[in-house]
């Protein structure tokens, strides 16, 4: 899909289970997300596949429920507050990352650096976006470990 987006700014993707139109054209994205936002809902399919993970929130709902969620979260997601909070989270996880690498070096242990980068990113994004401490890097949170493993399995299925 990345290759298609590079070649065609907007294209139709047809699969046996779902057809969709994909765009990477900035003018189309602005039209959909800003100029004519009211006409482009997420729809029931999006809600169905994301509700277990994201619950009934701003990323899953449409129309009036979306406006309500957006209003509730707008104070939490001001640019300054988000920047300050995410900086703290990313620094904390970078320190955990460095500690894990340091310990691996001391014990002459092999580390899957790609897996560690993925877990550091996942931990940071979940903390900032959802307020959840997965701690998949250290593995101290059993639910975080299960989620991280499920995320890896789902990614491998693509």
TrEMBL record:
It holds the Pfam family p450. GO terms for molecular function: heme binding; iron ion binding; monooxygenase activity; oxidoreductase activity, acting on paired donors, with incorporation or reduction of molecular oxygen. It comes from the Eukaryota. Keywords: Iron, Metal-binding, Oxidoreductase. Its cofactor is heme. SUPFAM superfamilies: Cytochrome P450. Belongs to the cytochrome P450 family. This is Cytochrome P450 monooxygenase. The lineage of its organism: Eukaryota, Viridiplantae, Streptophyta, Embryophyta, Tracheophyta.
């Amino acid at each position: 899909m990345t290759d298609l987006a590079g070649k065609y700014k907007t294209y139709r993707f047809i699969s046996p289970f779902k057809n969709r139109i994909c765009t990477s054209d900035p003018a189309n994205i602005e039209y959909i997300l800003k100029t004519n936002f009211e006409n482009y809902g997420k729809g029931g399919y999006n809600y169905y596949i994301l509700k277990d993970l994201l619950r009934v929130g701003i990323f899953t709902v449409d129309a009036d429920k979306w406006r309500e969620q957006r209003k509730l979260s707008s104070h939490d997601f001001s640019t300054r507050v988000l920047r300050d909070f995410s900086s703290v989270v990313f620094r904390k996880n970078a320190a955990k990352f460095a500690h894990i690498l340091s310990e691996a070096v001391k014990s002459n242990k092999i580390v899957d650096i790609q897996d560690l980068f993925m877990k550091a990113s996942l931990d940071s994004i979940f903390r900032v976006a959802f307020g959840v401490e997965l701690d998949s890097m250290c593995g101290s949170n059993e639910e975080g470990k299960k989620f991280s493993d499920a995320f890896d399995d789902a990614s491998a299925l693509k």
